[in-house]
Target: PDZ domain-containing protein
Amino acid sequence: MDAWLWVLAAVLVVWIGVATLDRNGYLPDYVGTMGPMLTVHTKRGRALLDRIATPKRAWRAWGNLGLGAALTVGVAMFVFLVVSALNIVQNPPAATSPVSQPRNVLVIPGVNDFLPLDVAPEIVLGLLIGMLVHEGGHGILCRVEDIDISSMGVVLLAAIPMGAFVEPDEESQSEAARGSKARMFAAGVTNNFFLTALVFLLLFGPVAGSISVASGAAVGSAFTASPAAQAGIGQGDRIVSVENESIANNSEFDAALADSATRRVSVGLASGETTTVNRSLLVRAAPTAGPFAEIGRNNTVTAVNGTPVYTRAGFADAVTNRSIAALTVRNGTSGETTTVTGPIGALAVVQVDGPTAESTDLPTGEPIVITRLGGRRVTTYDDVSAALAGTEPGDTVALTAYVNGSAVERTVTLGASPDADVGYLGVLGTYGTTGLSFTDFGVHLYDAASYLDYMSGNVGDGGLAGFVRAVAATLVLPFISLVDPSLSFNFAGFYGWNLNFFAVEGALAGLGGATFLLANVLFWTGWINLNLAFFNCIPAFPLDGGHLLRTSAEAVIARLPIDEKRRAVRTVTTGVGLAMGVSLLLLVFGPRLLG
Model:
């Protein structure tokens, strides 16, 4: 049974048991229930809060600083949510996108696609720390502002601590000055922001600084039925040598394979094993239109004009001097072979109103295959870019292309490029050879160095602004592959198979593997605290931002020469709250309903 089904079953059993006890009057008065949640109330600890709150002037200064930050973030969250909701209405994202799934809004490991169950303890601990710090801030500022506390305590999911709470006395709170209440409401997010900065300083400094990338090529995954998979190479393996030559990183591994046209390659793994990979040309990307559209992905090209080919280098050599080639293809499912003949070059579509369309009679909107450009042989779309290097707008270039199976020659007057200081051809190209891209080994490499740069804060320019950018960058790490196409994997911390790609050294070397656990705790504590602060700044009840909205509206409307000031405050808070509610619903369910 799935681990989460066991967890849900256990929660259900505890929930039924607690509900039975509550119904029969056996629960103590200090224990409350909210669905599957238990709240344990106590009045103990108020003396400790009084002692902590003793330097009231310092705490009020801290509260004023946090109040300004909370109000600023609250306005930013209002604008962000409204603009995001309007964008979803106007341009609904695909309903099948992972970010469009409502379950991915929940910060629940194993349920959220981007939060693996492996880091559930770190996530739960980060949430618990965040809630304790948040509610502790409210409690301290209550005592600073002489607001009584009815009770405080912890929130449990079954027996698992999930958070904390502080309940100000309603009468005492209503009698407090408006500024006192505002500082108290802002104190929680203020503490969350402070804790975020603290844990990321530790993470970016000594902790991540003691983690390095292990030598070798990191295998993030092996394609099904690929040469690597058939040789027993899979996720988590680290390739440290190719043909007895040491490999330091992913780039050296790619270079070693690119330089070799040998079919059989001996590779050494970090585990000490050596295995032989029989390379073959597995199609990883295929066009949906054009002469090779029928080849399809996950099939294997075995020969060019009858000559066997096994590697990308061998394929490139076989087609370099052939404008037309017959490719023998083995179906990855049935094993049957077919032969597909077509031009070898760069698959492209002529843009309407572009330089090629204006200079020639080549058709727009349908695929052509460019085989020569500016006197140079073209076999991939990269060759088109290389041929245009050094040209200028207004230059003319000779172009040879296959259109509907026939070769034509045209002269194109280049235009101005919107992206670079070179001549512009005006075609949309598909990368690869006539739209085909191959792997002759069959692995997705894991860019461990880039993920470590994020975890180390090495994405900013230094200083406070650089630190803020580095912290902001970590927010996207759990779904980084959706933001940065160059990265194929998301990153939720150091765990499981990716631990093989990192090593501990330096100041924390004595901790060994515990350094990875410490890094995960710091990362998730900072990540959750920052998101918790942002969420609580949303100007809608019952969030802190909603209370700050009301106190701010009261302060502004109190100075206006109008009657029915309470009604005006209620109108403002209700209107903003409804806008936030609708925006949140659109963010969560809009892609499914409108996409």
